[in-house]
Amino acid sequence: MTAFLGTPSALGMSEDARFGLSRVVTLPGPFALDGGAVLAAVDIAYETYGTLNAERSNAVLICHALTGDHHVASDHPRTGKPGWWTRMVGPGQPVDPARHFIVCANVLGSCMGSSGPASVDPATGRPYAMRFPVITLRDMARAQALLMDHLGVRVLLAVVGGSMGGMQVLEWAATYPDRVRSAVVIASAARHSAQNIAFHEVGRQAIMADPNWREGEYYGPGDVPPTAGLAVARMAAHITYLSEAGLTEKFGRRLQARETKSFGFDADFQVESYLRHQGISFTDRFDANSYLYITRAMDYFDLAEEHGGRLANAFAGSATRFCLVSFDSDWLYPTSESRAIVHALNAAGAAASFVELSSPFGHDAFLLDVPELNRVVDGFLRAVAA
Amino acid sequence: MTAFLGTPSALGMSEDARFGLSRVVTLPGPFALDGGAVLAAVDIAYETYGTLNAERSNAVLICHALTGDHHVASDHPRTGKPGWWTRMVGPGQPVDPARHFIVCANVLGSCMGSSGPASVDPATGRPYAMRFPVITLRDMARAQALLMDHLGVRVLLAVVGGSMGGMQVLEWAATYPDRVRSAVVIASAARHSAQNIAFHEVGRQAIMADPNWREGEYYGPGDVPPTAGLAVARMAAHITYLSEAGLTEKFGRRLQARETKSFGFDADFQVESYLRHQGISFTDRFDANSYLYITRAMDYFDLAEEHGGRLANAFAGSATRFCLVSFDSDWLYPTSESRAIVHALNAAGAAASFVELSSPFGHDAFLLDVPELNRVVDGFLRAVAA
What we know:
The structure is a homodimer.
Chain A: E1 2-4, E2 21-32, E3 38-49, E4 59-63, E5 101-105, E6 120-121, E7 126-127, H1 137-150, E8 158-162, H2 164-175, E9 182-186, H3 194-209, H4 227-241, H5 244-250, H6 270-285, H7 288-300, E10 321-327, H8 335-347, E11 351-357, H9 371-385
Parallel strand pairs in A: 4-5, 4-8, 8-9, 9-10, 10-11
Antiparallel strand pairs in A: 1-2, 2-3, 3-5, 6-7
Helix pairs in contact in A: 1-2, 3-4, 3-7, 4-6
Organism (chains A, B): Sphingomonas prati
Protein name (chains A, B): Homoserine O-acetyltransferase
Binding site for substrate (chains A, B): 234, 364
């Protein structure tokens, strides 16, 4: 069964690189999860750009971050906003539909069309809510691998992702080494640190403290979702995506339009107003339960632990070529985390290039205009394809 | 009118350095605030240790941080917990009741006995709640100055504080230069950065999103305070008090007593359980509205802005001797903030010594066992007294 989102189109690959082809596929199960649960089937929403060549050798999988979606390079069908990574993916960009068959899939557990807590449980006819099983980053990669089977792609030219996307790339390389010719891991880490877990836990507690959360049962008609808690969760997370210097440059201590302090509790400072807006607007596009599940998956992520406690084991004998990029102002997944991966790759004898780029934008730099990032990824992908 | 808290005792200075003398004094107004409001009178809860000498030259004021109280060196009368800075203040410590007359006052706006939003508004006979005026760090210092008048102390040998305590020290030095012989500013800053404001705004939004907050009107019989929101606020803030390395060393990715992941949403990781405990236990001892007011005061704090936009102006002609200490792992008030103060002191021709200490504990280091901090403060205070 295949349902369609966005612009319906004939089955088969789209020739229109500008708009992409957005679909949902139901992949038949049983789909066994790391946590022991089994899903009867999983829906995966995805979008493709470009054409798979006759040798089936030009496929590139783009993996999105925590709150992302599959509309990587085309306007979002509902909001009309441009794709979230048009700086990296699109005509003339390092990942180019003129040369690559590009696939981006909404991760398992999310709320943009793939199976997640807001999906209807076929066994009950009601939304899973918190009955959806807890998933892992590896489960996300497994679902993507099934999607690749469905699309007739056995070997990927590249798997590319930043932040949580980079974690999926690592899972791909570790789980399907013979299906990944190259792996691009940007602003990411091979495990969540105590501080990473701590920030996510604040977000989860903010959601669960919202009385509208109701143990996740807020999908009924007339129900109000826990937007207040989700907004606070997003605000806390958003701070971690930016650098202190970037925040200072962007906002400093500048006041809102009124020129003096209110001596009240309205948003006096621009940074307050900005954060409030980030929090509130997020609740329009994201499901609070999905936020719980995906942050949990990230916190559980520890690639070394999955491989006997030694990160190098995850890459033993790998023929995949790796490209790692970190940003000097990223304090969420700092350079030391990328360096730890590079050390493990070196220990495993895998081919790895690594660069720390300078940027004032903190973790978010991977999504922003950093020409050096594009040059690095473009050069790497061309070398792999050659 | 003087009310008593803790161990009642005769008026006059306590001879018992171990227990201190805890009181509340009502300072007659009108007390004009930076925001334009006027309080008819203010209550200030304070504790003293040691004896004022005949020359009245040995008084040391200790300023507490955001959620602190006046029980700096003695057991809390209600919880029985030891004073919050017994490592710095007490027999044999740098601030020693055998040599100093030590005063610590609960800040204006707090909830430990000084006037704040939970206090009864004499004009209405009901708690102020959000009708309490927004206060500033300078207002806090002004109230302390009135307390010093009340205690017969004109000139302080030293004003000492860490974090928000250090901000009060700076306000003292700038507002009452002829009353401050020396100023010890530890792990602090002369203004709140955009990132500092952002974290506080997350906390405020978490509190205000709690339906039990009810615009601050939760003091009535049967009312339930907004503990869930306050706990989330505390959790977010608590992360900023610790370093990433410190969290990793203390918790890493270690699991709770059960040895495997639950694949659920209970606290699997020790760091989750620790943070939840920090959040919940905080709500037993702190008032949510006070948290709003004091974080607001900190966010408003910008000593340069109060002095024509140039920090050096705050210290022009000052004869105060300054001692500044920062910690290399403190990312809340990093060394660069202390250095900016030192540059301003140098520009103003003020006497300043500055040291960055190495500690794995992040911002909280000023409260913890850092022998080098004690040596620095002890040496400085002895030199000043000599």
